[in-house]
Specification:
CATH class: Alpha Beta
Number of domains: 1
Distance between the termini: 28 Å
Strand content: 5-15%
Structural class: alpha/beta
CATH topology: Undecaprenyl pyrophosphate synthetase
Bound molecules: 3-methylbut-3-enyl trihydrogen diphosphate, magnesium ion
Oligomer: single chain
Helix content: 40-55%
Strand order of the largest sheet: 3-4-2-1-5-6
Radius of gyration: 19 Å
Number of strands: 6
Number of helices: 9
Order of helices and strands: HEHHEHEHEHHEEHH
Largest sheet: 6 strands, parallel
């Protein structure tokens, strides 16, 4: 039986977040330049987005470019930004066909102008779609996001719109880039690294973590289904005892 057939559709995570890592090592292993890995990583994105839609996952959030990734060699950064533009162009028709709504989180103003415009255009175009919400984390850093939320709240206090004692977890969440999106139940990281790399720190407080050695360009929808199956075998206790949750 395939992994897909074993997935319990009644117990799907609503939101899956992915740290797509290992493009560079994948390319290096084939004697190619890192950029070759990024190009092949796009094929994995396409397949995983389709697989998520096929199952009926509601939210998929992909770590596409981190705030820290700006520190990579200029040539690689430029290549990634160009790849983003060409991919948005190529995939928009398919996103429309599959009823996917595109979204983005991060310090988007840092993106090159053309990239930013292309992204906003694609988001606008898909804004009426009602299927999978595909969020790209771009120029995204979780600490930056938290600081940004704190600043917004401080401004609201200064403007007299809210009182400090009114700030609670819900209000804080509503000021994150991910406002309106439920917290991920499952976080997947590829490439055998066991770290979070400044991704969704607030949001993954109770997420189940799934690590695989597969490098991102080798990851396909079957691997996504396998991760979901693993998630479904776990007991989520949220601080309670096993007896309480059963
Ligand atoms: C992930 O792959 C893609 C981005 C961070 C943009 P890497 O480029 O980090 O690949 P490795 O980790 O060096 O193999
Ligand atoms: C995390 O991968 C960022 C993305 C996948 C976009 P990195 O390769 O940048 O993370 P580190 O440097 O290994 O922590
Ligand atoms: Mg990496």
């Amino acid at each position: 039986m395939s992994y897909k057939d074993q997935v319990d559709l009644q117990k799907l995570p609503r939101h899956i977040a992915v740290i797509m890592d290992g493009n560079g090592r994948w390319a290096k292993g084939k004697g190619k330049l890192r950029v070759f890995g990024h190009h092949n990583g796009v094929l994995s994105v396409r397949d995983v987005v389709e697989g998520a839609g096929e199952l009926g996952i509601q939210y998929l959030t992909l770590y596409t470019f981190s705030a820290e990734n700006w520190n990579r060699p200029k040539l690689e950064v430029t290549a990634i930004m160009e790849l983003l533009i060409s991919t948005l162009n190529k995939e928009i028709a398919k996103l429309m066909k599959n009823n996917v709504r595109l979204n983005a989180i991060g310090d988007l103003d840092k993106l090159p102008g053309k990239c930013h415009r292309e992204l906003l255009g694609a988001i606008e175009k898909t804004s009426g779609n009602t299927g999978l919400v595909l969020t790209l984390a771009l120029s995204y850093g979780s600490r930056d996001e938290i600081v940004h939320a704190a600043r917004q709240l401080a401004q609201k206090v200064r403007d007299g719109l809210i009182q400090p004692h009114e700030i609670d977890e819900q209000m804080f969440e509503d000021n994150l880039y991910t406002a309106g999106i439920p917290n991920p139940e499952l976080l997947i990281r590829t490439s055998g690294e066991y770290r979070i790399s400044n991704y969704l720190l607030w949001q993954i407080a109770y997420a189940e973590l799934y690590f695989t050695d597969k490098l991102w360009p080798d990851f396909r929808r079957e691997d996504l289904f396998e991760a979901i199956l693993d998630y479904q075998k776990r007991e989520r206790r949220f601080g309670k005892t096993s007896e309480q949750v059963n």
